[in-house]
Specification:
The chain is an alpha/beta fold. 27% of the residues lie in helices and 19% in strands. The strands form eight sheets. It has a six-stranded mixed β-sheet with strand order 1-2-3-4-6-9. It has a six-stranded mixed β-sheet with strand order 10-15-14-13-11-12, sandwiched between helices. Helix 2 packs across helix 11 and helix 5 packs parallel to helix 7. The longest helix has 17 residues. The structure holds beta-D-glucopyranose (BGC). The site of beta-D-glucopyranose has 9 residues, from loops.
Length: 792
């Protein structure tokens, strides 16, 4: 019904060459015979090569440059959209039966337009799952896979072929505007999460695009930014997560990033896209640009950036000119085109999948709720939680309590049918929420919203509403008629801009006054105050955390956020999330605060495309080297507000002694530890395995996360035995001089920990002699001198 192409879905019985019979054969071009590219028994390579051999030069160029995008004043798409609101489409060749492949965002759920035709009343809502920072806080890889499976089912049922996610840039700095779309400051956690998400989505027979490859760690001038970073920092921190994801999930596609890296746009860099990604890591899929990235389409082709998105006419001109003057060999375009055709062969579109436009949104909402509750991190609990809905009357303060934020803005946003707010979640669970205070907030929110112009495009920025000052009236009635105060602090951010220090990382004066006044009033009456953080990334907590009794980091938990949070507040779900990113005491404690978000190059002028600003040429040096996140705080003894890997539970866990399979490393080593639930409530524990290396022949952080595991739900008194396996590569660091991953000789310490700051048990082993684990290419050298921080 919905196929865009006149496929003749002939079941071939006798007319295949060589008499082969197969049920999968489709006569895509309708010529009544099985051509090589139609032969399901031929290799994907041969089939794609056959298609490419049938294309004219113009058609090849049409294929490698996407179909465009409708942005008035900037670019126009030539074709009607198959799926409204999808981010991009690839050229189709109906005469060959090759359909247009559809690409749509994004990391927290499928992003398409929720309505198409105002008369039909039909909707195309997608599930807003929790943001990636919330998913990674669960440290539960099976959960990431499950979320991926659910998300992928919507991709498939809405007729989309490739989901533009997951994203896995590193949380280099808390002000990064898109950190919510990314998993962690640690590459192992990021890479593992991404691999499981990819495997989950792709189990539906649709593709993913892991992005943004690589070092797109801020939004300011993101298209004009040159990142200078050392080879070691790139290999160990920024590339490592992508390497894990590629090797463990072989995603259908990779999206290169906007920025330049060491002087070259990532989308134009063969060292990155061919030498590292394909030759070293064995990536088999295609690479696409980020939307409008780079400045030279011919170089993108040569670099192995197969597909240019969303595609603009002048890019075709650049490719044709380069082919004509001999500066670009056609073999590159043929190879790029071949990879795109391979993607088309993998797609549901070519299989003529009869998508329903009716994914199981109810079932997926339950997955979203479970994932949101598993990702919640309990940061503080002074006997305030859990709550009994029958006994506790609640006064909810903060506009965030009523306007819960499901996820961030920009392409990482999802068009969901609803978002359950905290207050709705409380009411759904039979809590009594103070109605007078509720009415006051709702009135304030409506008034403030009415004052604002409506947002018309995702490029427009809507600053958050100012917090409502808490009046004495709301305080006195609240304290009198309730047992507990809940305060929600909300933060939102997204594409195109980074967060600010004032009023975003740091709380506003009104917010601080609210915390202060509410806490004083409730404590004076012997009542507790619980703080909820509905945020996409790190905020300052140290100055106010002592004033409240509990702090619940709910993140932006997707459309079921309010229900999921109440599951945790009541103890229906015992919190088991742990921080994927450090919460510092003050912003300046973060090493990258000295060089974030980079500087405009003196004298450089803003570059425009039509009416749109592409930014001003800028430069940033990653002078902190590998000392990102906990690697810095832990190695340099800098105190944090809440350390990496930290999170509380309503129960307690005891750890046994870690046992190693050997005291001498001979290629692999197993560490085993027993964890027992020593409290009164069933719960799960995230166990982290860090390794401290000798750090004699190499500069090493004090310790690094090398593995992790999460127990199943343990009943009180129940224990679990967890095994961790370490290979030489897990112990290795990147030696720039030798362009190799090297495991230095000497004494190592394995540390089993509840967080980076809470080692429960440790054991030592020796690596008798240095191991050169893997030699790689000497590529991506810095384009200018960079002096890095070291721990020597
Ligand atoms: C974003 C990508 C996104 C693309 C398509 C870009 O602005 O950086 O993450 O996939 O748009 O919407």
């Amino acid at each position: 019904m919905k196929q865009l192409f006149p496929f003749l879905f002939l079941l071939l019985v006798a007319c295949s060459p060589g008499g082969k019979q197969t049920a999968d054969y489709k006569d895509l071009n309708g010529n009544g015979q099985m051509d090589v590219y139609e032969d399901p028994n031929a290799s994907l390579d041969d089939r794609a090569a056959d298609v490419v051999s049938r294309l004219s030069l113009d058609q090849k160029v049409d294929l490698v440059v996407g179909l465009g995008m409708n942005i008035p004043g900037m670019t126009e798409s030539k074709k009607p959209e198959k799926v409204k609101g999808a981010a991009g489409n690839i050229m189709d060749f109906p005469e060959l039966g090759i359909p247009s492949v559809v690409l749509a965002d994004g990391p927290a759920g499928l992003r398409i337009e929720p309505t198409r035709d105002s008369t039909s009343g039909k909707t195309y809502y997608c599930t807003a799952f929790p943001i990636e920072s919330a998913i990674s806080s669960s440290w539960d890889l099976e959960l990431a896979r499950k979320v991926g499976e659910a998300m992928g089912s919507e991709v498939k049922e809405y007729g989309v072929d490739v989901l533009l996610g997951p994203a896995l840039n590193i949380h280099r700095n808390p002000l990064g505007g898109r950190n919510f779309e990314y998993y962690s400051e640690d590459p192992l956690l990021s890479g593992k999460m991404a691999a499981h998400m990819v495997n989950g989505v792709e189990s539906n027979g649709v593709g993913t695009s892991i992005k943004h490859f690589v070092a797109n760690n801020n939004e300011t001038n993101r298209m004009m930014m040159n990142v200078t970073a050392s080879q070691r920092a790139l290999r160990e921190i920024y590339l490592r997560g992508f390497e894990i994801a590629v090797k463990e999930s072989q995603p259908w596609t990779v999206m290169s990033s906007y920025n330049k890296l060491n002087g070259t746009y990532t989308s134009q860099n063969p060292e990155l896209l061919t030498t590292i990604l394909r030759d070293e890591w064995g990536f088999e899929g295609l690479v696409m640009t980020d939307w409008f990235a780079g400045d030279n389409a011919a170089e993108q082709m040569r670099a192995g950036n197969d597909l240019i998105m969303p595609g603009m006419p002048h890019q075709k001109g650049q490719i044709k000119a380069a082919l004509a003057d001999g500066s670009l060999d056609i073999k590159y375009v043929d190879e790029n085109a071949k990879r795109i055709i391979k993607l088309a062969f993998q797609s549901s579109s070519i299989k003529g999948y009869d998508y329903s436009d009716q994914p199981d949104l109810k079932a997926n909402a339950q997955v979203a709720r479970q994932a949101a509750s598993e990702g919640i991190v309990l940061l503080k609990n002074n006997e305030a939680l859990p709550l009994d809905p029958e006994k506790v009357n609640i006064a909810a303060y903060g506009i965030g309590s009523y306007q819960f934020i499901a996820g961030g803005t920009g392409s990482g946003d999802v068009n969901e049918a609803y978002t359950v707010s905290l207050v709705e979640g409380l009411k759904n669970t039979s809590f009594k929420v103070h109605e007078t205070i509720l009415a006051k907030y709702e009135e304030y929110i409506a008034e403030e919203k009415a004052k604002r112009p409506e947002i018309k495009s995702i490029f427009e920025y809507q600053p958050p509403l100012d917090e409502m000052p808490v009046s004495d009236a709301e305080l006195s009635i609240g304290v009198k008629e309730n047992d507990l105060a809940l305060i929600t602090l909300g933060r939102n951010s997204g594409e195109f801009r980074d967060r600010t220090e004032d009023g975003d990382f740091y709380l506003t004066t009104t917010e601080l006054q609210m915390i202060d006044k509410v806490s004083k009033a409730y404590h004076a009456a012997g009542k507790k105050v619980v703080m909820v953080l509905n945020i996409g990334n790190v905020v300052e907590t140290a100055s106010w955390r002592d004033k409240v009794d509990a702090i619940v980091l709910a993140w932006q938990g997707g459309q079921e956020a309010g229900n999921a949070l109440v599951d945790v507040l009541t103890g229906q779900v015992n919190p088991s999330g742990k921080l994927p990113t450090t919460f510092p005491i003050v912003y300046d404690d973060i090493l990258s605060s000295k060089n974030f978000p980079g500087e405009e190059i003196p004298g450089a002028e803003e570059i425009k495309m039509g009416a749109f600003s592409m930014g001003t040429p800028s430069q940033i040096k990653y002078e902190e080297g590998i000392y990102v996140g906990y690697r810095y705080f832990d190695s340099f003894g800098v105190e944090t507000a809440f350390p990496f890997g930290f999170g509380l539970s309503y129960t307690t866990f005891d750890y046994g002694d870690v046992e190693l399979s050997s005291e001498s490393f001979d290629g692999t080593l197993t560490a085993t530890v027993e964890v027992i639930n020593s409290g009164n409530t069933a719960g799960k524990e995230v166990v982290q395995l860090y390794v401290s290396a000798p750090g004699e022949s190499m500069d090493k952080p004090a310790k690094e996360l090398r593995d992790f595991a999460k127990t199943k739900l343990l009943k009180p008194g129940e224990s679990a035995t967890l095994n961790f396996t370490l290979t030489a590569r897990d112990l290795a660091s990147f030696d720039t001089e030798r362009s190799a991953w090297v495991t230095e000789a000497g004494q190592y310490e394995v540390k089993v920990a509840a967080s980076v700051a809470e080692v429960k048990s440790s054991a030592t082993f020796k690596v008798p002699a240095e191991i050169i684990v893997e030699k790689v290419h000497n590529v991506l050298a810095p384009d200018q001198e960079i002096v890095e921080v070291t721990n020597k």
